[in-house]
Structure formats: C-alpha cells, structure tokens
Design goal:
Layout (H helix, E strand, L loop, with lengths): L2 H9 L10 E5 L11 E3 L6 E4 L9 E6 L11 E7 L8 E9 L11 E8 L8 E6 L2 E6 L5 E7 L5 E9 L8 E6 L2 E8 L9 E9 L7 E11 L18
Antiparallel strand pairs: 1-15, 2-5, 3-4, 4-15, 5-14, 6-11, 6-15, 7-8, 7-14, 8-9, 9-10, 11-12, 12-13
Length: about 240
C-alpha cells in the first residue's frame, strides 16, 4: 500500500471537525521568511530560503548554526524562526512539515532541537519538542523530565515527512499527541501535558543545540502547514496513469 493510501485510510479514524481548513502556512513559497512572525538569528545568512534543496514547491529553509551563535543571550546556540501560533487550551491541530539532515550533519551526544512548541514564559525546556541526540530523532512531551514517546533514525541525506496531531492541554489526561512519519502512523494517540499551566505556546523551527557542539551544522525544513483536519495536510493523490488507447 502506498504512503498516500495508508494516510488516506487513517482519515476515517480521525473524528471530523466542524471547520476544517488550513490555518497557516510557513512553507517559504513566498521566497522569503515573511510568513513567519520573526527570527532569532545572529545573521541573515544563518536562515536562508533556498531553491536548490527542496521537498515540495520551489523553496525551503536552510538553517545553519556555528558554535557561539547566541542571538538572545540564553543557553545553547541557535538560529530559529518563530511563529506566534498561540493555540488555546482544548484546541486540536495538525502540523505538517519536512526536515532533512544533510550527509555531513554532525553526530553528537549533545541535544540538537529542530522543532519546538515553546511556552510563552521565559525559560526552560518546552512542553513539546523534536530533537536529535546521537543518530536518533526524538519527540519529547512535558518538558525536560517529560516522556519520549517516539524515536526514529536520523537517516542523513533523506527527507523526513512529519504529520503531528496535538491536543493542547496542561492536563495529561486531556492533552495528546499522534505522529505520522514518512506516511506511516508511528505514534498512536498518546496522552500527555502539552502545555504548562495557562501558558500558550509558539512554534520555533530551525536549529537550536547544546553550546558544547563545535562543528558547523545545517538542516533543511520545508512545507510547514497548520490545519484543523488531517485531510488538509495529506500529500496530494498520485496522478492517474494514462489510459492506453
């Protein structure tokens, strides 16, 4: 069964929502970063919209970090884009994007965050984040001491296609996550606190890593879409094969 057919079948498992629509796109098809609220970057060259390495459309983001990159005077080194999404408690959304770690991406025992939903408050680990450690990608829910319900191999040089469903709540019996990776459901609905108290979250995409990591690193992101329904973030159906004459 193709990845598309697997995902299409899963639509039937998701309760219908009243006003299914794409809420926001940060897919870089404007040719710049204007879809995003702002950036945290030491230089424009660290967050480049490129056309030579893309997953879909014409453009993608290349995020680069060098040791010492610290645009906000905080822990770690980073260059990230921010979108102030402010999902309300009790809301449910689907997020789709693709990430690729090039073949020269450095392997480290230190943490390397490539996507996170950070709380509005100042400091500390976010309630939901994707990070690399060693040669594995991780999804963590609930902050620094939270659960890691999913891990996957880094597979450098290959695109990783993610669809993430989140119900936002500080109540671990209400909030949940569900994850598709490369067209397969790899994490069924898993309960957890996806918010801290009454703090709303905002999205950060790019690269943020432990400051002890020395080699320069780049990561590519493409196609970010936020929607209220799974069908809005599914890949398009394959083109029909021509009918023999």
């Amino acid at each position: 069964m193709t990845a598309f057919l697997r995902l299409a079948a899963l639509v039937l498992l998701v309760p219908p929502l009243a006003s299914a629509e794409v809420v926001w796109k940060g897919d870089f098809e404007t040719g710049n970063i204007s879809q995003w609220t702002r950036s945290q970057s030491v230089a424009n060259s660290r967050l480049q919209v490129v056309s030579d390495v893309v997953r879909e459309g014409r453009y993608a983001l290349k995020a680069t970090v060098r040791q010492g990159d610290d645009p906000i005077g905080a822990s770690g080194n980073r260059n990230e884009l921010l979108y102030i999404s402010e999902e309300k408690a009790g809301s449910t959304y689907f997020y789709k994007w693709s990430t690729m770690f090039p073949s020269n991406y450095p392997i480290s025992d230190g943490w390397q965050v490539f996507a996170q939903w950070h709380q509005e408050g100042c400091c500390g680990s976010p309630p939901l984040e994707f990070f690399v450690k060693g040669d594995q990608m991780h999804l963590r829910v609930g902050g620094a001491d939270g659960d890691i319900p999913w891990k996957g191999p880094l597979n450098k040089g290959q695109w990783h296609d993610f669809i993430l469903q989140v119900k936002w709540s500080s109540n671990a019996k209400v909030g949940f996550v569900q994850l598709w990776h490369n067209g397969k459901l790899v994490l069924p609905k898993t309960m957890g606190a996806t918010q801290f108290g009454k703090e709303m979250n905002y999205l950060k995409l790019g690269l943020y890593r432990e400051d002890s990591i020395r080699p320069e690193a780049s990561v590519y992101h493409d196609g970010f879409t936020m929607s209220t329904a799974l069908e809005d973030v599914l890949p398009p159906p394959p083109a029909p094969e021509p009918t023999p004459e």
